[in-house]
Structures are given as structure tokens and as C-alpha cells.
């Protein structure tokens, strides 16, 4: 073989080395790359710190960071020390290799290969396991903070008589410690065994003893630690039975002990704990006996006991004791589950009363005046009219409204009225020319509130605006109209610097402004600019001349995003809504504290129970859950976000909630007391939809308080699907001012319906007082319909609307040309023992597809009306007027009739409808309004002629 260094066997081969300049360049590039990576990591950390400081929640950042860092280093170091020590100790106990076997000779090359790098290899292994363990532990920061700051619930579980805080705050931390101990022991055992094998302490194929005495003692101690941890696990499993979910026909997410748990699993866990302790002692005894015989016998006994006592015995008890008499055996445990579940979800005070479902009034006309007292029927659907707001109040393409508007209450002449409200937010998709300056410097904010009466529409089916135009004017007092923070504001803006912002445009031209608030992060520092240039991957932030003295960057601008960031321990309601409070637009965000450690309370999955037909079409309405599976929830915090300054305030709403108190200890000063909520703000607070949806889902089963009835499942309800939506999702609850039986007057409420499981008739109606200023706020009332007679449910009512011949004919006429029909919210109102259903019907016609309210469907006591206005429909249902419209059926041809007056009126109606469609295409609203007036006049003439003739005409071809 030639010698590379030269010599008698061959020529010298000169190996080229990089020049000094090349080496210097490579070293410089390496340093720059390292500095670049370091600055990228620093940029993310620094911008986060700056943001939290800008919103005055820097303590949240420091507390979470210090907790994560502490857990990372403590548990990472513990894991590294545990694994590293056992590798070092196993290496130290290695036997002499003077008499090497064939097996050891084959391993010799590996020993020699790693010999020069043993220290580095040990360091690499321990560092790797330490990093992994530390990262895993850092993710448990919430568990740690809840454990160290936990406050008592002052409620005890019925089995072990421990405070609920043990299960909610302590047990999760103990389980983490146990899991960490198992991981450290198993990794140490594997590392030690491999080290012993590599250095001869363990032998697989060699004759003689398989392990040296030292290796036997070392590994037996580790196995003893593992079995001791298993004993602790058995002991904790006893308490875990109280929060264990199981498959039980009484509930899909049953939680807590059942008969078999209390009488088989619980004693089994205790016996297994004792056996595991004895087995662990036998493993430790090998330090003196140096034999595996007794420990292995003990371990085998433990495994056999786990199979027989922990598995087979409970199965026998379930088969031969429980199943033959299940209701009697399970009833005491079901009662505990019902009680705990109702307490955990705040439904224990729900009142259930019988409701006839049928009016007792002999004279229906006397009920007409009672309708106004029973409810302020909201015919303006906030989930449909957003395009109408957009077309009529957008004003400029760079403004937009959210897909779903909100319902609130505002006073007019001393009387509160339900109001549909939305903000004219920034819509970057509509700016005239897109570039970096326009996107982030000039077009920065929306402008003004647009509001309309919820109970009225004008003669053309348009909303009756109470606040409109640009700048917005109307019934609301003077307020700061600029909207820098909103649901549609998802990008960053740089404001307050030399570049002026577009404020709004009017007849006098474009107005400009400059942001005056101290929100956002200052970009005056070159370090800040460089950090944001890296964090946002936008180099122009670093050198742009549009950034100067006073420039500030605004980001994290949606209300839910801001609340979630400053309170990462809260679950955020899916619907943030705006309100004008004390001269400012405030976004109001409901937030929840949750846990899944409430003993005996059945669990629910927030993502599923809060889903409905609205969340199916709008992801922005979905709940932001920190913990998706929960069995305890409270609306403990009301948060506000200022639409101009972005200021976030958290208010303690539930003053008794121990989970909130725990988080307030962990993050002191972040939640303001309930007494700080002003009366003007309280007037706009409401009962949150997502909490209501969770409670109504639980009440489908847990309205029953009798264990025997609960077990039979005979009174299980279900939330019906939305009859006006094809998504197949649950009907959303609706806000409505109404009076439930037993209430003295109307109250702003949130309501829903229930149907029997697998059927469409109505089984119950549920309402909660949603007015935060009411003494009955949060009071749940359930009207239970009789099971002996069938009361029409929402799907049946909608089907009845669609199937009645005269209504169907009128709808076909409305759908003439390229128009579409869209049904609004199907509202249910209790009235004199019966149920009044009302549903607005919108027509989307012309090229704009602008939804306009054209008809209102009303039904009560089997009588249905389909009229131009709510009053007309109510008059027809309760008065002496005919309940149905004339049989207008054709979309291009009017129906025929033997009455020439009817024929002429229907011809005129068709002409008026066609004229209206043409006016829509031309955006001629004056002509459209006249056409609608002519259409109404013609239909009234036809109705009058038919009434006088005494019988309706037949549809064409019929």
C-alpha cells in the first residue's frame, strides 16, 4: 500500500490546504450565519416582549416565559442526570476483559471505536434526552401553575371525600411527575443495559452467567424503581376512577365511578398497589441476594394479578352482578353523576315546567295584542342582512362588514330595542391600488357603526337604519368612529409616522388622519425595526423612509386574538361583538375557565357541542379552546378590546369560580374586579352563545334528575338541525327580547328548541335571561311539552311552510327571473300555552343579489299566514282576515281564475314584479320601490276579489 506521506514505496502526494484568505472568508461566513440564526431567534422573542409590554400585560409574558424556562431546565437536567449517571455508573461497574468470549471479541471494535469519544458521546446522549424532556416539561406550564396556585372548591367528591381541587389541580401534576419518572427510569434502564452489554456486564450468547453481580444489582434497582412507580400509579388510579371516562349507555361521555368501579376496580387497584410495593422490595433485595429468582416471581405475580384482579374479576362482576339488575346497581352512581354534571356546567338551577303546547284562549283575536307583550319579534336576521349592509352602507370598496352581524340593545326614547349592529371595517381587498405603502400605511382602519332596528324593515324590505352614512350619524351619541381593531383586520399597519392615512371620503374629497393613540410598538429604535423586519419577513421595515419619528406598528388586531394572547389560560367564545360604550367602540369578548378534572361530571367536546349551522359556514365563529375536552365550564371573564386603541381589559365576572381565582393568583393584576365594570358597559353584556350551546347539549340528557328515568333513556332530547340551512348542523340559538311564562315583562333572552331523540316534533323550549343587568341573568327556563300529544317542531313547521300550496305559489312568484329565496331565523315564542313561529323571507334579486325582506311567515295553533309585513301576518293569524295569500303560482305566467278581477290583478302583479327585477339590474332603487308598491297593491286587489268571491282560484294547469 503506498504511503501518502511519501517515501521509498511511492511519490509524496501533497494535500492542498485552503489559503489564509479562504479560511478567513469561511470563518467570517460561519460567524455571520450563526449571528443571523441567533438574531432570528432573538427577533421572535424581542417582538413578543415588545407587544406584551405595549398592551400592558408584560407580566403574562414574563410569567409564562419564566415558568416554561424553569420547567425546561429543571426537568431537562433531571432527565440528563438520571440517564447520564446510569451510563457512567454502568461503565464504572464493567468487568475486566482479560478472558474475553467470542461475543465480547465481536464487540471489541465498537468499544475501541468509541473509546476516544466516550465523554463527548455521553454528553451528546444526555443533552439529547435532556432537551426532549425539557421541551415536554415546558409544555406543562399550565399544569404547574394550576398546581402551585390552586385554591379549594369547597366541594368534595362523593367517593373519596376529597376537595374537587385535588382532581382539578393536583392530580394532573402528579400524573405528569409519574409519567416523567417512568420515562426517566425506562431510558436509564435501556441505557444502562446497553452499556453493561457493550462492556461485558451482560452476556447473551456466552456460556456461564448471563450477568455480573454488579450488573444484576444495578439493573435490579432500576427495575425496582420502575415497579415502585407502578405502585404509585395503581394508587393514583384509585382517584382517577372519579374522573375516568367510560363507555356507558346512559351517556356518551360518562365520567366517574360506576358499580363495577367502586366494587371491583377500586379494591383491585388497592391490592395491586400492595403487590407492586412487595415486588419492588424484592427487586431492591437483589443488592444483597444477587439473584433474580424472587424478584421475577414477584413480578410474575404482579402481572398475573393485574390480569386476574384488574381485568377478569371486574368483568365477572359486571357480567353476573350488574347486568342482571343494572338499574338497581347503577342508580346510586347515576345520581352522583347527574348531580355533579349539573353543578359543573351551571345547569343545576335550571327550572323545568310543564307547558301545554296549545292555546287555551277561546277567542284568538284577544291574543293579537298579547303578541307585542310576549316578544319583540326580530325579523331582521343578522346572519343574512350583511350583504344588504355592505351594498347600502359600505360607501367605499375598502370597507366591509363581517359575514354575521350581531344583535344588541340600544335605548330609543327611553325604550330599549333589539338592534342589528356591525362595524364598517377595513377591507384591503377593495383598495384602489395594492402596494406595500397602501396596504400598510395609507389604508389602516375602518370607520363607523352601522345599526338597524331588529323588528322593522321599510316598504322595500330594506333595514331601517338607526346609525348610518359616512361618518356615521343617527341615534347613537358621539363616539370615536375609527376602527383600527376588528374581526376583519388581520394584517399589520404602521401608523403615526410621516405617512398620512386615508380617513374617509365624502363629497368634499378624501380626508386624511394620523393615529394619535399610544397603541402598538414604537419603531423609533433601529433594533425594533430590524426585529420586525425579520419577524414579518419584510426588509422594507428596516429602511423605508415612510417610517420615522412617531411610527408605531399595530398587529394582533382581531379581538379574540388579543384576548387569547393576554390570557392564554382562557377559552374564548366564538362571537366577539361590538358596542358603543362611553364614547368609544368596544369589542366585547366572553371568555371561559375550564377543566376536565371535575369528579363524576360527564365530559363534552367543545368543538362539537358549540358547532352549528353558522360555524359550519364561518370558521371565525368557532370557539377558541385551550382544552377541547372539558367537564367544567364557567363564563368567568368578560373582556373588552377598544376598537381605536386596542386596549384589552379583563373583568372578573364569576366571583366564585375557583379556577379563575387560581389563574388570578398565577397572573396577579391581569384581571380587574367585577366592580370596575361600568353600568354603561354592563348594559351591553349578554349571556354568551357558546356556553348556552354547551349547556343545551348537556340538558338533552341532564334535564332528567331521576336516575331510573335517566337510565332508561326514554326522555332523551336532541338539538334539531337548522331547518333553513342545508349543512345538516344544529340550529343556532337566537337572541330575542321575550317574556317567558312567569316573567313580568320582556327580557333580552337567548333561546333554543329541543325535539325527542330521532323525531321531529317539539319536546321542549329553553330560554336563558341574557341581560347582564337583570337580577335573573343566567336563569335557565325550560318549557317541557307533553308527550301524549305531538307539537310541531322547527323542521315540521318549515316543511309546512314549504308545502302549503298557496305559500308555495307565492314563493315561486318571488323567485321569478334570477331571484333566490333565503329563509331567515325561525323564531319561536311561547304565547298563551301555545307556540308562535315567525320567519322572515328574503329575496336576493338582480345582479347585486341584495337580500331584501319581502315576506314574513307566521304560524300559531295550526293557522299559517304569509304576508308582506309581520303585522299583516299576525293580523291574518289572529284576526278575521284570510290566513293565506292568493294562489300566485307562475314564475312567468300568472295563475288563471274564473274571476276577471283576480286575473287582471295577477297580471298587474306579474308586470310589477318584472319591472322590479329590471330596476334591480339597473340599480334604480326609485323604480324598484315603485314596482314593489305596485306589486303589493295588485296582490291586495287579488286577495280582496277572491275573498268577495268566496272561493280561491285554481293554479294554472291545476
Low-pLDDT stretches = 1-15, 881-897, 950-958
Q: Share of helix among residues? A: 40-55%
Q: Could you tell me the mean pLDDT?
A: 86
Rounded to the nearest angstrom, the radius of gyration is 36 Å
How does this structure look, described?
- By secondary structure, the chain is α+β, with helices and mostly antiparallel strands.
- It has six domains: 60-95 and 103-211, no CATH class; 212-344, no CATH class; 346-374 and 697-804 and 818-874, no CATH class; 376-556, no CATH class; 558-685, no CATH class; 886-958.
- The protein has 27 helices and 35 strands.
- The strands form ten sheets. Strands 3, 26, 27, 28, 29 and 30 form a six-stranded mixed beta sheet that branches. Strands 18, 19, 20, 23, 24 and 25 form a six-stranded mixed beta sheet that branches.
- A hairpin with a 2-residue loop joins strand 14 and strand 15 (509-513).
- The radius of gyration is 36 Å and the shape is globular.
- It starts with 19 loop residues before the first helix and ends in a 9-residue tail after the last helix.
- Mean pLDDT is 86; it is low at 1-15, 881-897 and 950-958.
Brief sketch in words of this structure:
With 958 residues, the chain is α+β, with helices and mostly antiparallel strands. It is built from 27 helices and 35 strands. The longest helix has 35 residues.
Amino acid at each position: 500500500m503506498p504511503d501518502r506521506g511519501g517515501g521509498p514505496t511511492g511519490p509524496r502526494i501533497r494535500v492542498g490546504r485552503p489559503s489564509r484568505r479562504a479560511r478567513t472568508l469561511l470563518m467570517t461566513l460561519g460567524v455571520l450565519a450563526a449571528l443571523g440564526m441567533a438574531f432570528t431567534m432573538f427577533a421572535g422573542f424581542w417582538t413578543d416582549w415588545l407587544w406584551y409590554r405595549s398592551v400592558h400585560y408584560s407580566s403574562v409574558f414574563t410569567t409564562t416565559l419564566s415558568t416554561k424556562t424553569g420547567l425546561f431546565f429543571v426537568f431537562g437536567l433531571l432527565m440528563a442526570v438520571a440517564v447520564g449517571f446510569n451510563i457512567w455508573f454502568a461503565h464504572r461497574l464493567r468487568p475486566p476483559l482479560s478472558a474475553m468470549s467470542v461475543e465480547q471479541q465481536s464487540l471489541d471494535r465498537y468499544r475501541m471505536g468509541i473509546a476516544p469519544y466516550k465523554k463527548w458521546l455521553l454528553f451528546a446522549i444526555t443533552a439529547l434526552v435532556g432537551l426532549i424532556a425539557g421541551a415536554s416539561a415546558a409544555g406543562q406550564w399550565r399544569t404547574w401553575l394550576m398546581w402551585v396556585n390552586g385554591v379549594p372548591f369547597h366541594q368534595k367528591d362523593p367517593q373519596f371525600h376529597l376537595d374537587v381541587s385535588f382532581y382539578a389541580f393536583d392530580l394532573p401534576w402528579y400524573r405528569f411527575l409519574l409519567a416523567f419518572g417512568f420515562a426517566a427510569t425506562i431510558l436509564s434502564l435501556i441505557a444502562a443495559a446497553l452499556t453493561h452489554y457493550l462492556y461485558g456486564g451482560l452476556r447473551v450468547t456466552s456460556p456461564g452467567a448471563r450477568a455480573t453481580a454488579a450488573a444484576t444489582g444495578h439493573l435490579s434497582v432500576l427495575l425496582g424503581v420502575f415497579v415502585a412507580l407502578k405502585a404509585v400509579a395503581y394508587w393514583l388510579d384509585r382517584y382517577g376512577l372519579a374522573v375516568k371516562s367510560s363507555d356507558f349507555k346512559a351517556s356518551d361521555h360518562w365520567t366517574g365511578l360506576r358499580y363495577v368501579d367502586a366494587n371491583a376496580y377500586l379494591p383491585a387497584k388497592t391490592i395491586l398497589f400492595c403487590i407492586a410495593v412487595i415486588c419492588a422490595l424484592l427487586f431492591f433485595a437483589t443488592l444483597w441476594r444477587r439473584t433474580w429468582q424472587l424478584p421475577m416471581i414477584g413480578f410474575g405475580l404482579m402481572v398475573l394479578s393485574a390480569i386476574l384482579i384488574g381485568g377478569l374479576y371486574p368483568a365477572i362482576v359486571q357480567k353476573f352482578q350488574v347486568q342482571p339488575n343494572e338499574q338497581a346497581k347503577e342508580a346510586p352512581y347515576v345520581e352522583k353523576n347527574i348531580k355533579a354534571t349539573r353543578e359543573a356546567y351551571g345547569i343545576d338551577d335550571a327550572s323545568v315546567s310543564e307547558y301545554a303546547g296549545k292555546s287555551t284562549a277561546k277567542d284568538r283575536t284577544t291574543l293579537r295584542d298579547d303578541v307585542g307583550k310576549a316578544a319583540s319579534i326580530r325579523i331582521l336576521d343578522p346572519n343574512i342582512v350583511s350583504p344588504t349592509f355592505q351594498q347600502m352602507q359600505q360607501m367605499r370598496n375598502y370597507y366591509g362588514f363581517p359575514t354575521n352581524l350581531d344583535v344588541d340593545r340600544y335605548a330609543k326614547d327611553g325604550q330599549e330595542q333589539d338592534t342589528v349592529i356591525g362595524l364598517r371595517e377595513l377591507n384591503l381587498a377593495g383598495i384602489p391600488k395594492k402596494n406595500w405603502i397602501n396596504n400598510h400605511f395609507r389604508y389602516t382602519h375602518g370607520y363607523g357603526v352601522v345599526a338597524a332596528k331588529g323588528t322593522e324593515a321599510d316598504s322595500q324590505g330594506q333595514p331601517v337604519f338607526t346609525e348610518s352614512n359616512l361618518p356615521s350619524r343617527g341615534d347613537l351619541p358621539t363616539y370615536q368612529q375609527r376602527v383600527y381593531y376588528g374581526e376583519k383586520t388581520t394584517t399589520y399597519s404602521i401608523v403615526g409616522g410621516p405617512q398620512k392615512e386615508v380617513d374617509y371620503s365624502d363629497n368634499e374629497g378624501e380626508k386624511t388622519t394620523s393615529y394619535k393613540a399610544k397603541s402598538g410598538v414604537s419603531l423609533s429604535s433601529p433594533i425594533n425595526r430590524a426585529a420586525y423586519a425579520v419577524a414579518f419577513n419584510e426588509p422594507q421595515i428596516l429602511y423605508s423612509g415612510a417610517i420615522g419619528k412617531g411610527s408605531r406598528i399595530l398587529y394582533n388586531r382581531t379581538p379574540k386574538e388579543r384576548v387569547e394572547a393576554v390570557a392564554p389560560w382562557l377559552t374564548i367564545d366564538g362571537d366577539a361583538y361590538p358596542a358603543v360604550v362611553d364614547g368609544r367602540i368596544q369589542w366585547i369578548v366572553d371568555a371561559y375557565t375550564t377543566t376536565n378534572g371535575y369528579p363524576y361530571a360527564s365530559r363534552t367536546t367543545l368543538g362539537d357541542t358549540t358547532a352549528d349551522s353558522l360555524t359550519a359556514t364561518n370558521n371565525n365563529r368557532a370557539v377558541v379552546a385551550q382544552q377541547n375536552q372539558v367537564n367544567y365550564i364557567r363564563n368567568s371573564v368578560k373582556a373588552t378590546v377598544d376598537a381605536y386603541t386596542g386596549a384589552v381589559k379583563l373583568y372578573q365576572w364569576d366571583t366564585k369560580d375557583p379556577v379563575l381565582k387560581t389563574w388570578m393568583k398565577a397572573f396577579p393584576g391581569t384581571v380587574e374586579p367585577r366592580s370596575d365594570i361600568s353600568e354603561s358597559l354592563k348594559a351591553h353584556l349578554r349571556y354568551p352563545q357558546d356556553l348556552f350551546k354547551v349547556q343545551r347539549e348537556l340538558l338533552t340528557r341532564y334535564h332528567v334528575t331521576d336516575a331510573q328515568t335517566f337510565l332508561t333513556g326514554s326522555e332523551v332530547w336532541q338539538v334539531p338541525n337548522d331547518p333553513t340551512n342545508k349543512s345538516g348542523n344544529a340550529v343556532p340559538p337566537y337572541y330575542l327580547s321575550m317574556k317567558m311564562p312567569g316573567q313580568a315583562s320582556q327580557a333580552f333572552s337567548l333561546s333554543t328548541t329541543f325535539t325527542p331523540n330521532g323525531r321531529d316534533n317539539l319536546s321542549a323550549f329553553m330560554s336563558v335571561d341574557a341581560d347582564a343587568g337583570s337580577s335573573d341573568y343566567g336563569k335557565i327556563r325550560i318549557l317541557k311539552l307533553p308527550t301524549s300529544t305531538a307539537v310541531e317542531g322547527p323542521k315540521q313547521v318549515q316543511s309546512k311552510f314549504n308545502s302549503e300550496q298557496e305559500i308555495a305559489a307565492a314563493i315561486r312568484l318571488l323567485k321569478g327571473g334570477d331571484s333566490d329565496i333565503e329563509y331567515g331565523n325561525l323564531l319561536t315564542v311561547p304565547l298563551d300555552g301555545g307556540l308562535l313561529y315567525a320567519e322572515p323571507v328574503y329575496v336576493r334579486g338582480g345582479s347585486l343579489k341584495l337580500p331584501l325582506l319581502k315576506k314574513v311567515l307566521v304560524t300559531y295553533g295550526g293557522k299559517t299566514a304569509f304576508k308582506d309585513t309581520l303585522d299583516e301576518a299576525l293580523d291574518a293569524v289572529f284576526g278575521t282576515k284570510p290566513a293565506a295569500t292568493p294562489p300566485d303560482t307562475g314564475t312567468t305566467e300568472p295563475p288563471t281564475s274564473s274571476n276577471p278581477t283576480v286575473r287582471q290583478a295577477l297580471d298587474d302583479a306579474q308586470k310589477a314584479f318584472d319591472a322590479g327585477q329590471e330596476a334591480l339590474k339597473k340599480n334604480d332603487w326609485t323604480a324598484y320601490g315603485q314596482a314593489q308598491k305596485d306589486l303589493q297593491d295588485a296582490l291586495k286587489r287579488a286577495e280582496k276579489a277572491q275573498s268577495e268571491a268566496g272561493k280561491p282560484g285554481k293554479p294554472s294547469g291545476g
